[in-house]
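SEQUENCE, STRUCTURE TOKENS:
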Amino acid sequence: MLVVDDDVAVGKVLGALLTQAGLRVHLTTSGAQALQVLARQPIDVVVSDVRMPGMDGLQLLAEVQRSAPELPVLLLTAHGTVPLAVEAMRAGAADFVLKPFDRDELLFSVRKALARAEAAARAPEPARAGAFVSRSPAMADVQALLARAASSQATVLLRGESGTGKELAAQAVHEGSARRAGPLVKLHCAALPESLLESELFGHEKGAFTGAVQRKPGRVELAHGGTLFLDEIGELPPSVQVKLLRVLQERTFERLGGTQTQTVDVRFVAATHRPLEEMVKRGEFREDLFYRLNVVPVWLPPLRERPEDIAPLAAHFLTLHAKANARPPFTLTPDALALLEAQPWPGNVRQLQNFVERLVVLSDGPTLTAADLTRELSRQPGVAQPPAPRSPAEPGSSSLDAQRRETERAALEDALKRAGNNRTLAARLLGVSRRTLYNKLEEHGLGERG
């Protein structure tokens, strides 16, 4: 837990409250200090004041979203800046808490953010720019369909494997629509337990439950005039499915604990990798909700079905990551490109991007050869080259599990060394989330949790 407040006294009070709740807390007094902590420590949630000299809370939020988009940020705000905080939530903040803060409300918001962080650690890293860099007929068809869908008000259901670019497709629908000037609000339906999901989606009234000391809008309300993107819609529990169905049908809802009906003007885009039709047959997903969502279905093909996109994607990612890492431009030799195109890429565009980023960071020269690719392809995510095998009769030979642990530890140490002990970069080199890296570091006694 990271607390950021330029008022030292307020920071200490916050730290003491969170420590009493059993949380480990780092205190900082500026956005710049916070970024330094984030670069070297595992942090689950950031709690930041909005008004600070230098880098304020909104600028810190933007930096965190750029470097660690899965990390929840809670904003502390005075009454006069509530509209600003609501806009920040539309921009991606996890929540806001009014000053002077109530203990129960703060802890409720923190625990909700922790639940999101834990779900994010289990989920794959969201796809980043470049998923629609393509020249394949399959993706041309997808983009044409998205453009037609964007010009309407119809609900869009994005289907496809993880890593194919469903979030970018949702962004394309929003930006190509008449609602582009409105907010694009996102909710990962698997990121919260059922007890918190309803409040997050529909908001709550003051007194609706312990910790609800003020009225708060939900994601549906925050998306008014824009688009609400519901990722992993197949994870919605039945109790929330029926309430979402009503919003889709009538564009009305009630906040949790409220009786007044709210009306919203929202365009819905949903996404899933789950087989919803099979879930309907098993009674796990409402049939009427499925048909309400499935107005314009768009299937995003896996990368293995469009190998002609690998070359332009690789070139795009080489340029992107060379610039981000202050490296000269990189090129691929023909044999290196052929090797890339021969891979199955089960993680799709996301896996290809992570792989190219590792090449940029770890390679010496600007020309990447098949030998460079072969070296990095041998480094499966989270696994380094194993040490030379021992003879079965050699003293000290260990079980398979012990050798696996030894190999894993070597991978962690190698990644940390190559990344200059920067945990965020080390996680990228290994192709895992930051939280997975921190868990492994703790397991092997290589780092402190925070």
About this structure: The radius of gyration is 23 Å. The mean pLDDT is 84.
